[in-house]
Specification:
Elements: H1 3-6, H2 10-26, E1 31-33, H3 41-46, E2 51-62, E3 67-78, E4 85-96, E5 99-105, E6 112-114, H4 120-138
Antiparallel strand pairs: 1-2, 2-3, 3-4, 4-5, 5-6
Helix pairs in contact: 2-4
Protein name: Polyketide synthase modules and related proteins
Organism: Nostoc favosum CHAB5714
Length: 142
């Protein structure tokens, strides 16, 4: 779900801003997009209400990223027993003019899969950002 729609309280808004700042600190050329999903019926059916989605766009195709846009999806789980909400994973996908070029998921083995992949340096920075994102959203639930 678009990050702009998920910022329903001060803590969530602050955490979303922290994620944007973490990314922009490492990649200052990236422009953040808190509404990466269109607001149409077809797209609405695909959107996960248990995620916070943030897009980042580069001024052109980045050779080190091998993509022009990045989508970060922070996945959550709501425990019905104790009513706690935790970030359980981060998915990052890179897109070029053909569509999705690569994907990184923290849920399995933290490896990048796809037709192309970013440089080793970018991959390392992405994994560090993913660790930081999980820390940001889970600090209050520990």
């Amino acid at each position: 779900m678009n990050a702009a729609e998920q910022a329903t309280n001060l803590e969530l808004a602050s955490n979303i801003a922290t994620v944007v700042n973490l990314f922009k600190f490492e990649f200052p050329d990236a422009k953040s997009d808190l509404k990466p999903w269109k607001n149409d019926p077809e797209t609405r059916e695909l959107v996960d209400p248990d995620s916070i989605d943030i897009g980042f766009h580069f001024p052109g195709i980045s050779k080190s990223w091998r993509s022009r846009s990045i989508l970060i999806q922070i996945r959550f789980y709501q425990d019905p027993i104790n009513n706690s909400r935790r970030a359980i994973g981060v998915e990052v996908a890179g897109f070029d003019h053909r569509g999705e070029a690569w994907r990184l998921s923290t849920v399995d083995n933290w490896s990048i899969v796809g037709a192309s992949s970013p440089s080793d340096e970018i991959e390392d920075k992405l994994k560090q950002i993913c660790r930081q994102i999980l820390e940001v959203f889970n600090k209050s639930s520990e």
